[in-house]
Amino acid sequence: MSPQFRILVIEDDPDMLEVMQMILTAEGHEVILARDALSGLRTAYQTHPDAILLDVMMPSMDGFETCRRLREMTDVPIIFVTGKATTMEDVVRGFSMGADDYLTKPFN
């Protein structure tokens, strides 16, 4: 059986990467992992995912800038998944950078 969707997860926390990979794989999706923004950008360009799950707080380049750059190359859904204390300004900023949704950790 082929995967339902190819999902790129850009997340710097290895434990969260593992959890997200387990959940998404169990649902039948192909999961591609990137541990930082730059490798996430490269991977998105190379693999053409169907959706991207993106952390906000990452070293070197935050998720907002990463999202802006992703939007220059793709129109696939981008969902912020973040542990950052969410304020309305963060959510608005995420949407203004091109995100399609904004979820906070922990989630179920």
Number of β-strand runs: 5
Radius of gyration: 13 Å
Number of helices: 4
Structural class: alpha/beta
N-to-C series of helices and strands: EHEHEHEHE
Task: Give the strand line-up of the largest sheet.
Answer: 2-1-3-4-5
Mean pLDDT: 91
How much strand?
15-25%
Oligomer: single chain
Summarize the structure.
The protein has 4 helices and 5 strands.
Keywords, separated by commas or semicolons:
alpha/beta; five-stranded parallel β-sheet
Account of the protein in words:
This protein has 108 residues and is an alpha/beta fold. 39% of the residues lie in helices and 21% in strands. The chain has four helices and five strands, in the order E-H-E-H-E-H-E-H-E. The chain has helices spanning 14-26, 37-47, 63-71, 88-96; strands at residues 6-10, 30-34, 51-54, 78-82, 101-104. It has a five-stranded parallel sheet with strand order 2-1-3-4-5, sandwiched between helices. Strand 1, helix 1 and strand 2 form a beta-alpha-beta unit. Helix 2 packs parallel to helix 3. The chain is globular and about 40 Å long. The mean pLDDT is 91.
Structural topology:
Layout: E1 6-10, H1 14-26, E2 30-34, H2 37-47, E3 51-54, H3 63-71, E4 78-82, H4 88-96, E5 101-104
Parallel strand pairs: 1-2, 1-3, 3-4, 4-5
